[in-house]
Every structure is written in structure tokens, then in C-alpha cells.
Amino acid sequence: MKTINKTKSLYRLFIAGVILTMWACKTPEIIQKTANTKVPESFNNLKDSVNVATLNWKEYFTDSNLINLIDVALENNQELNIIKQEIEISKNEISAKKGEYLPFVGLQAGAGGEKVGRYTSQGANDATTPFKGTKENPEFLPDFMVGAYATWEIDIWNKLHNAKKSAVSRYLASVEGKNFMVTNLIAEIANSYYELLALDNQLEILKRNIKIQTDALEIVRLQKQAARVTELAVRRFEAQVYSTKSIQFEIEQNIVETENRIHFLIGEYPGKIERSHKGFVALEPDIVHAGVPAELLINRPDIKQAELELAAAKLDVKVAKARFYPSLGLSAGIGYQAFNAKYLLNTPKSLLYSLAGDLTAPLINKRAIKATYYNANAKQIQAVYNYERTILNAYVEVVNKLSKMSNMEKSFQLKKQEVSALAESIVISNKLFRSARADYMEVLLTQRDALESKFELIETKKNQMNAYVNMYKALGGGWN
């Protein structure tokens, strides 16, 4: 009868505990936000059924020297290799989260001993019922134990499974982050390479111009001897030669720094970069097919990364919410325990086992859980805005690059005409100067304008090639 009453009492206590824990499960209200992923149907009303982002970068770039540099960079670049290790860390986080919802099983062994006081409840009891062969409890009682134990939190609210899914999303986001890094790395090397070719061409133009100016200086000196010009003209021509020569060293320094920047990107110490600057001005970028804006969501790694980060943030909210609910845990153990090692494996006398379950839920002072929940939701809203911003930024980048490619092509054609006109004007001004029909200042100004126009032509071609590179990057090409 007593046993039945105790069972009923335990059952009532359990029911009361369940009711109390369910009452404690009320979660606070939060504001949720859904990402807006709508994009315009076209780029500046241009609809293209082909997208160059699907091309492998070795098909997009044709310069063998540039391809070799990119190949080395993808293998040796330290920043890229650091990101690869971040991916490994994210992968390990998945294993860690997965292990949390599986049972923990361990082995345990121990040995010890104790002496209790004679006038304690245990000591008094042992004295009245001494061990066989003794009159009262021993002075020192050994204790030996060996066994296995297991604990398991049953994931009834998917808290642990959602935490694992969140880790998976962040792992995939880290992979997309690596892909975005690859895209940026390829673009940075290509831009630096074309900058190097531009500097080589500017240096070559400058050296030819120094030769022309030096020859002009000799003519002026001869004319001074013939009393056709003054010493002022000679000095002005000399100053022009010195000014042009000083620019040469600035360009050479820029060449060294650009070469070293490329070597840094490919993970090597400074040295010469293999290249051929011949034909740089004649380079004609291929027609770039931009596709439709909706393809950015598939091709741009940074957009996919933001999307996966948003998915992880949403799962984090679910994990934080589940902490308001009761958690069910099971624990069990089985083994042997005895006060003498020779009795340790005596079955069933030395056998021990246990099985227990517990249901716990927060009741009072849930501030930490609420704060975690609110923070998770705030981060989820942040992730929504970041996702929308990334999509908008990608669209703007593509529109800007399309416009720049078109404008750079038009600018380059006009610069070519300007250079041609000024090249003819140099010949004309020299003839007029020799025949005393033009002032020496006209010759100097014409030479200076011609040099500047040639430099600007090379700079425009570089900007045109950079736009070609950045267009590929903006569309999400390079990582595949």
C-alpha cells in the first residue's frame, strides 16, 4: 500500500513538473523581416541570353603570361590559403554540433577509500552490523569501481539539429567566401598585369620622346650659333629634356612597385615579371555578354555567401527560441563496485546500474536566454539587410562596368585621333621652326601636348582593359 502511494505521489509530482515547465515555455514576441530578392529584368534595358560569368577564367583571358601568374597565385597566395583553413574550421564546427545531439558514452574506473567517524550515522550503523570477520567497521574502507556511463539530451525541439544546420550553412558560406576571394584575386592580378603593360608602353614612349627632344635641343644649339635664336631658347629646350628624363624614373619606380605587388599576390619574393608589352595599344577586349540580373544570384559568390549567412541566422533564432522550452535528458550507467578488488567482478553482488531522466526548463530570471533570443533575431535582421545590400551592390557594379566599357571604347577612339593629330603637328612645328616661321615655344608646347596625349592614350587603354577585367568580376566570373 505504501509503495502504491509513493508511486502516485511521484506521478503527481511529475505531472505538476510538466505543467510548470510548459507554463515557463512562453517566448517573447519579436519582429521578423523577409529579404527582398527582386531585381530588374535587365541591365539598362539590355537583355542578353549569354553570360560570360560561366566562362572559365582561362577562356576569358588569353595572355599566356597572365594565365601563368593566376595559376601560381591560386596555389600560393597566403590570404587565399588562410581562407581555406577557415573552411576547415567551419567543417569541424559541423562535426562538433553533430556530436551534441548524439549520446555521449564513456568509460570510468576509479579507486579510493574512506574512514568514517565512529559516532556518525554511517559509523554507528557499521558498528552494529560489522563485516564478516570483524567486530566493528574497519579503520579504512577501500573502494574500487569500473564501468560505463552514457548521457543523452533528446532533441525534442530540434535545438541541436538546427544548430548543426546553422553550422552547415556557415561552412557553405565560408566556401562561397573563398570563391569570392578567388574572383577578387584573379581580377587584382589581371588589373596589375595590364597596369604593368601600360607602364612599359609609357616608358617606351618617354624614351622615344627624350630622343626627339634631345635632337631638337642640338638643332636649337646650332641655330644659336647661327644667331637665329637666343640662349633663352636653348635653356628652355634643355629644361624640357630634363623634365622628361625625370618622369622616366617615376615610371621605373612604378614598374618596380607594380611587379612587387604582383609577386606578393602570387606568394613569391620580388623579381621580374614575364610579359610582352608589344601590341598593348592594339588590344581589343571581346564583347562582354552580361546575361540577365537574376543570374547574379547564382553566379556571384558574395550574394550566395550572404544568402547562406541569412539561412544560418534564421536557424540561430530557432536555436535561441528552443532554449525557452524544457529539455529532456537521459543518463545511464553500468559497472562494478566493491570495497575489495577480489570482489570487484562478482556478479551480481558487485554489479551496479542506474537509469535516470530529467526534464528542465527555465522558470525565473530568464534574462540571459531572452537577450540571446533578441540578439539572434537582431542578427537575422542584419543578415537580411546585408543580403539585400549585396544584391543591390552587385547590380550597380554591373551597370557601372557596362557603362564604363562603352565609354572607355569611345574615349579611346577619340584619343587615338588626338595622338595622330599631335604627331603631325610636331612634324609641322619643327619644319616651321627651322624656316623661322614658328616660335620655339610653339615647338615646346606641341611636344609636351603630344607626350601627354600619348600617355593619356595608354592610360585610357589600361582603363579599358581594367573595365573588361572588372566586368568579369562583377558578373561573378573567375571562381568556377
Automatic annotation (TrEMBL):
SUPFAM superfamilies tied to this protein: Outer membrane efflux proteins (OEP)
Cellular localization per UniProt: Cell membrane
Record's keyword annotation contains Transmembrane: yes
Gene3D superfamilies to which the protein is assigned, alphabetical: Outer membrane efflux proteins (OEP)
Annotated Pfam families: OEP
Record field: transmembrane: none
InterPro entries xref list: MdtP/NodT-like, OMP_efflux
UniProt keyword annotation of Lipoprotein present: yes
Keywords: Lipoprotein, Membrane, Palmitate, Transmembrane, Transmembrane beta strand
Membrane topology: Lipid-anchor
NCBIfam families reported in the protein's UniProt record: outer_NodT
Similarity annotation: Belongs to the outer membrane factor (OMF) (TC 1.B.17) family.
Protein name: NodT family efflux transporter outer membrane factor (OMF) lipoprotein
Organism: Wenyingzhuangia heitensis
